[in-house]
User: Which sequence fits this backbone?
């Protein structure tokens, strides 16, 4: 979820006609079991309305109409790019698989018809990747799956320590490094995000009269975590 949010922040730039929306679809997957498939399309529609991409807000909850309007928008604005980030997709994909991937197939066609100016990303637990191996599924056309997993302990420790040491900081002891790894579960993206905030905090500390090399204490890490 943290990585998707970061992708959203980095991609989203209305001045360059790039828009990114993030949606947690865990509850959408639960609703699909009750034949409420339109919920996903309603949420996408609401995102588009909040972005004010259309001169008049969309009111339709019909996927065919929504996709047609979006393709018309892309046809009129050749610079427009839209990234749709769908998080917590496990339950959603389980339910859509029982319906021969009806919704995913529509999203795949949207990507193709827009020449991938609209891109959809599904994210969830490691079992999301297993759908790639199911026969007669549309995922191959969405792109190669990417598994984001934890680093081994030595690599994670180096990712924390070495960049700080290169700019004049060192950790008080190994327990301070392990505290960061416990907060980030050894995931490289989370480590980088946490350490980026920690570096900002240490720069502020040095700016208040500290000197380099500066020692990173457990209290500094706790400030960032909180």
Assistant:
């Amino acid at each position: 979820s943290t990585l998707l949010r970061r992708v959203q922040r980095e991609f989203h730039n209305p001045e360059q006609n790039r828009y990114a929306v993030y949606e947690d679809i865990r509850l959408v997957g639960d609703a699909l079991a009750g034949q409420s498939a339109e919920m996903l399309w309603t949420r996408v529609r609401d995102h588009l309305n909040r972005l004010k991409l259309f001169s008049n807000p969309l009111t339709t909850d019909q996927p065919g109409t929504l996709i047609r309007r979006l393709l018309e928008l892309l046809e009129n604005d050749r610079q427009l790019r839209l990234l749709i980030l769908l998080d917590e997709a496990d339950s959603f994909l389980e339910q859509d698989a029982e319906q021969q991937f009806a919704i995913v197939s529509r999203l795949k066609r949207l990507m193709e018809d827009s020449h991938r100016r609209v891109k959809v990303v599904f994210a969830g637990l490691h079992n999301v990747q297993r759908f790639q191996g199911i026969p007669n599924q549309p995922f191959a056309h969405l792109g190669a799956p990417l598994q984001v997993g934890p680093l081994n302990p030595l690599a994670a420790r180096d990712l924390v320590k070495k960049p700080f040491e290169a700019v004049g900081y060192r950790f008080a002891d190994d327990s301070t490094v392990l505290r960061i790894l416990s907060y980030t579960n050894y995931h490289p993206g989370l480590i980088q995000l946490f350490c980026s905030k920690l570096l900002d905090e240490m720069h502020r500390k040095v700016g208040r009269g500290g000197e380099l090399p500066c020692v990173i204490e457990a209290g500094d890490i706790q400030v960032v975590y909180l």
The longest strand covers residues 18-24.
